[in-house]
Write a structure and sequence with these properties.
8 strands; binds SN-glycerol-3-phosphate; binds nicotinamide-adenine-dinucleotide; eight-stranded mixed sheet; N-(1-d-carboxylethyl)-l-norvaline Dehydrogenase, domain 2
Length: 333
């Protein structure tokens, strides 16, 4: 197959490698000329995961037309804040039937729309759209360490198409019809990873981390149920699986970002020092928009938003979280 991958950050590079190793020809769209030159001439991304030699099946370009010409499938891996811009940029170069899979994790600011909904609005064809998410740190996937993921689409045919496209001996793919649940889990787990980073950053231990992950899962499940997703998705790879990976991994940018904020650093400090996205920073705001729309209570998300965007004191926020009225363990799911 000829596959166009749009976005050459860590995850776009890792997915390109996975597809190349799987025997597909990959046209990888990158923003910067130096990234394109390095991938085409030296088979390495100079900025992300640069120690890995990339498959010779990967050809990079800064041209959308060049990447998308003749593509049998399109893989979207730009930051979630750029979903609408990316959808508009590719629309002129794909057919009405070209299958498109979104691998970014977030929710659109303002509208509260999920990436798949943004793409449906911009390029149409709900049935050809899919999303991919799971506990998949690029640093491990690119080194072909055994991982698994979920591919969700409203069309079983599209889900199966991408399941086959991505499956390799080291990357196991499952299908689902719950695009809403998978995408909300993907955005949510990043916020909880920031909370875990904040918690370690102020000196709390593993009990607090487990509490945040578990109650974060309860928040995630309430929002998924309210938005029309299937709460059982939260028990799967996109929910619990990715929550565990992101909250516990040394690779997690979101957790690292939380630790930095606890030390008084800002989102700009994180971005300048890593050139990477901590998607949870935006998601704590966008998920709150959705929660307000659906009348769902998200106490941990609200604390993260207050600390990241309003300068709330982390220790005081933790005390406020702990001193809320006592509750039943499960409600609203
Ligand atoms: N890194 C992972 O392990 C991983 C795994 C699964 C999903 N994801 C998701 O994939 C998406 C992309 O993340 P990543 O890790 O590949 O990125 P990254 O953090 O490694 O790099 C940032 C990327 O954003 C691009 N970028 C920044 N500003 C841009 C702009 N104005 N226009 C176009 N591109 C711009 C950069 O060129 C670069 O490709 C995110 O939604 C992330 O949550 C990442
Ligand atoms: O490094 P993070 O925290 O952005 O997480 C990356 C992936 O989403 C893990 O599945």
């Amino acid at each position: 197959m000829n596959v166009a991958v749009i976005g050459a950050g860590s995850w776009g590079t890792a997915l390109s490698q996975l597809l190349g190793v799987g025997g597909h020809d990959v046209a990888l769209w990158a923003r910067k000329d130096e990234v394109v030159a390095s991938i085409n001439e030296r088979h390495a991304n100079p900025r992300y995961l640069s120690d890995v030699t990339l498959s010779e099946r990967i050809r990079a370009t800064t041209s959308y037309e060049g990447a998308l010409d003749g593509a049998d499938a399109v893989v979207i891996v730009t930051p979630s804040s750029l979903m609408r811009e990316t959808a508009q940029a590719i629309s002129a170069y794909i057919t009405d039937e070209t299958p498109v899979i979104i691998c970014s994790k977030g929710v659109e600011e303002g509208s509260g729309l999920l990436p798949v909904e943004v793409f449906e609005a911009e390029i149409g064809g709900k049935g050809r759209l899919a999303v991919l998410s799971g506990p998949n740190h690029a640093e491990e996937v690119i080194k072909l360490m055994f991982s698994a993921t979920v591919v969700a689409s409203s069309s079983q045919e599209t889900a199966r198409f991408f399941q086959e496209l991505f499956a390799t001996d080291t990357f196991r793919t499952y299908v689902s019809d719950d695009t809403c649940g998978v995408e909300l889990c993907a955005a949510f787990k990043n916020v909880i990873a920031i909370a875990v980073g904040l918690s370690y950053g102020i000196g709390y231990g593993d009990n607090t981390s487990a509490l945040l992950m578990t109650r974060g899962l309860a928040e995630m499940s309430r929002l998924v149920a309210a938005c029309g997703g299937n709460p059982i998705t939260c028990m799967g790879l996109a929910g619990t699986g990715d929550l565990i990976a992101t909250c516990t991994s040394e690779h997690s940018r979101n957790r690292r970002f939380g630790e930095m904020v606890a030390q008084g650093k800002t989102l700009d400090d994180f971005t300048a020092s890593t050139h990477m996205v901590a998607e949870g920073a935006l998601a704590c705001r966008t998920l709150q928009t959705l929660a307000d729309m659906y009348g769902v209570e998200l106490p941990i998300t609200s604390v993260v938003r207050g600390v990241v965007w309003e300068g709330d004191d982390v220790k005081q926020a933790a005390l406020d979280l702990a001193s809320r009225p006592l509750k039943t363990e499960f409600y609203g799911i």
